[in-house]
Amino acid sequence: MSHVKAGGTAKNVHDSPGQRLGVKLFGGQQVKTGQVIVRQVGMTKRPGTGTFMSRNYTIHAAKDGQVVFLKRRVRLFSGKSVSRTEIQVQ
Asked: What's the pLDDT at 83?
């Protein structure tokens, strides 16, 4: 007979590196065309004037200028109105 009880399978052993998400340039900072302002998963922050959103929801600067963060009320599909952050370059 075995001297050691049967061990279970190892779970949660795979490890992946972080995605480096978040705000890269804050309000008041200078930005150049094409620079990344925010890396995000989903549309937690919305692009405003002077910015554009790429396919993976990263917000970039469309022109040179200064980054501005604003609060906006956005209506959801259900009709509910919620506050969201809008990013602009002025």
From this structure: 95
Measured CA to CA, the distance from residue 43 to residue 49 in angstroms comes to 16
The mean pLDDT values, 10 residues at a time, for the chain of 90 residues are 73 86 95 96 94 96 96 94 96
DSSP string, 11-64: -S---------EESS-TT-EE-TT-EEEE-SSSSEEE-TTEEE-TTS-EEESSS
Give the pTM. Answer: 0.79
Is residue 67 within 8 Å of 89, Cβ to Cβ?
A: yes
Which tokens sit at 34?
């094409």
Dihedral (CA of 30, 68, 64, 19) sign: positive
Q: What ranges do the domains of the chain cover?
A: 22-89
Assign domain 22-89 to its CATH architecture.
Answer: Beta Barrel (2.40)
